[in-house]
Specification:
Helices cover about 50% and strands about 10% of the residues. The protein is mainly α.
Length: about 90
């Protein structure tokens, strides 16, 4: 079993040619695990928000998920409702 860093998760999906032979061999021959924080890192870099979106990291990840998935966000959070970039339902 091996743990993949966030950059490896991204490269494995989008640019597998960036992986070394050693990394490819390890990935092919082992079970893969990742840290939950990698999902946070990927969400953070996936969408850029202006200052209208709450600075709370958790809220930004939730909002990014809503945007990336093109799914309205059901929330009572006034800051997220005010952010016109997010399609909210309340």
């Amino acid at each position: 079993m091996i743990t993949l860093d966030t950059c490896l998760l991204v490269w494995l999906s989008l640019s597998p040619d960036r992986l070394t032979k050693n990394a490819n061999k390890a990935i092919e021959n082992n079970s893969l695990i990742m840290s939950d924080i990698s999902l946070w890192e990927i969400a953070k870099i996936s969408v850029e928000f202006d200052d209208s979106v709450n600075l709370d990291s958790a809220d930004r990840i939730i909002a990014a998920t809503s945007l990336v998935e093109d799914a309205p966000l059901v929330t009572a959070d006034k800051n997220l409702i005010k952010a016109k970039i997010i399609n909210t339902i309340w």
